[in-house]
Design a protein that fits this description.
Strand content: 15-25%
Oligomer: single chain
Helix content: 25-40%
Radius of gyration: 18 Å
Length: 286
């Protein structure tokens, strides 16, 4: 699966307040697919397929689970965002009376803490993934450590855990756009908890160390962000949650305006937006 420009989504102006359901759909329809090359690269490296029992932390609207299920894996996803999880259910769980024998029909989705994802048949997970990239939201590493401490006991000894984060800032064209969140929070003297922060080279290793995991390899994957127009780009980026603290510190109108201004250097002659990025993943064992 290769990233494509996201089609135009006609809707209300980006500065209009957006309800959680609409934002979840923006994530599922616009932004989530940008990370598909990361999912596929990890699954290819780890030879995910029939026999893989996968637990996904922060599974969102379920695209990574859908790709794994298509490879034959038995998948379980956990997320605290009920709106995104509802979209994952629509994607992964069969309709009543449908074909429960399809790969997606084996999916299980859990709302809340990973400790609630105990396998129904008692067999442990062999792979845990955390595909929400950490490194640019204050406290995201701490939250991931807590989630891993709940999830790792559900996996077999020696199982694989994959952590993901942003690559070097100089190789991520989106980095200056994300800095808008930090600037707006700082300007409003907003609390740093949950706000943007610059990511560091060893963020993933720090999380692994604190969660009691042993690093066993890493990789980098190109994940360009491509949008059909400015409206889709702003809506997609705001759906990531990385600008939530900035919205609270100012308002959505201001954040949308400044994000659009930061995107302007990436605006092409045909009106599309294109930003090359590199993401990093760390393979660990329990």
């Amino acid at each position: 699966m290769t990233p494509t420009l996201v089609r135009h989504h006609s809707c209300a102006d980006t500065a209009t307040p957006v309800d959680p359901g609409t934002r979840a759909r923006d994530w599922a329809e616009i932004q989530e697919r940008m990370l598909a090359p990361l999912y596929e690269a990890v699954y290819e490296r780890l030879e995910v397929g029939t026999g893989t029992r996968l637990l996904s932390l922060g599974c969102g609207s379920g695209l990574s689970l859908l790709i794994a299920a298509a490879r034959g894996a038995r998948v379980t996803g956990v997320d605290t965002d009920s709106e995104r999880l509802a979209l994952a259910r629509a994607r992964l769980l069969p309709d009543p009376g449908g074909d429960a024998g399809t790969p997606a029909g084996h999916a299980r989705l859990v709302d809340g803490d990973p400790s609630a994802a105990t396998p129904a048949d008692g067999a442990p997970y062999g792979l845990i993934t955390a595909f929400t990239p950490i490194g640019c939201s204050a406290g995201d590493g701490e939250r991931l450590v807590d989630a891993l401490r709940s999830a790792v006991p559900l996996a077999a000894r020696g199982s694989t855990v994959v952590l993901t984060g942003w690559g070097p800032p100089e190789r991520c064209a989106t980095a200056p756009v994300l800095r808008v969140a930090g600037r707006l929070c700082d300007g409003a003297r907003a609390p740093r908890t949950g706000g943007w922060r610059p990511w560091e080279r060893d963020d993933l290793e720090e999380v692994a160390f604190r969660a009691g995991l042993s690093p066993d390899g890493s990789g980098r994957v190109a994940c360009p962000f491509g949008y059909a127009d400015m409206d889709s780009a702003v809506r997609g980026l705001l759906s990531t949650r990385l600008f939530d603290a900035a919205v609270s510190a100012t308002d959505r109108d201001q954040v949308a305006k400044e994000v659009a201004e930061a995107l302007h250097p990436h605006l092409r002659g045909d009106g599309t937006i294109w930003m090359p990025n590199v993401f990093r993943y760390l393979v660990c064992t329990t």
